[in-house]
Amino acid sequence: MKEKYINLFTDFGFKKAFGEEASKLHLISFLNTLLPEHHQIQELHFTSNEHQGATALDRKAIFDLNCISASGEFFIVELQKAKQNYFKDRSVFYATFPVQQQAQRGNWNFKLSAVYTIGILDFIFEDEETDTRNDVIHHVQLKNQHNQVFYDKLTFIYLTLPNFTKTQDQLETLQDKWFFLFRHLHELDEIPPRLREKVFLSLFEKASIARFQPEERQAYESSLKYYRDLKNVIDTARDEGREEGREEGREEGLEQGREEATLQIVQGMLTTGLPDQQICSIARISSEQLEIIKNNL
Length: 297
Fold this sequence. Notes:
PD-(D/E)XK nuclease family transposase; alpha/beta
């Protein structure tokens, strides 16, 4: 059966639900569930999602969503569908652009507005410590050696949404409901009772594929195909990796068995009085290996 609502992890779906003027309230509601009280957003406006470097030779950055709140905070919102090398490095690099663009000509006291980078991830950080690997929200700031915040105007918030496992009946907070929709909107056939709030009714209306114009439907289908192809490649690579791991395990087991059998054969031959050279030839081991076996008898 065809899906009724868009997949929010597709580029088209994400921009449709959060990146248009008509869907700005969705983005504000979602971001406010992640922000501290003193940086809650009342209004925001989108800015160019492409930032050039200081010179023509500098690398540019292209964000999924780039916006500024009415009180001056900067927000970079990035959708990341798959792992990539140096993802954290890229996040830091991107965060430097809204910092640099605040520079003013002439006399300037270097006072900066807060910058937030929000990473919405369809994968988990496997390199994290065990006690944080299963977290949904990873809140990162600069801290000193005493674990005290050194600078509170540069914040990275990563959402590892595969770790969010609540069901419809377990949804309590506004944040829970947004996380649930990121994971399951495209699987729903109707609006769940717990998601009948005004902001979500608006989202479901924007996310209804039946309401799309033909060109929108085509654009979404292309975006969905790209997402599914990417997921298929990742899943295939993961399955092949598991099989290689199992094969390596089998090989290791066989190798260990061969080593144990060789050890038993050598130990038996040592009791017969055969010359060392002949034992090495029969067992296919070096004289050094034979000496190690002798020393461990």
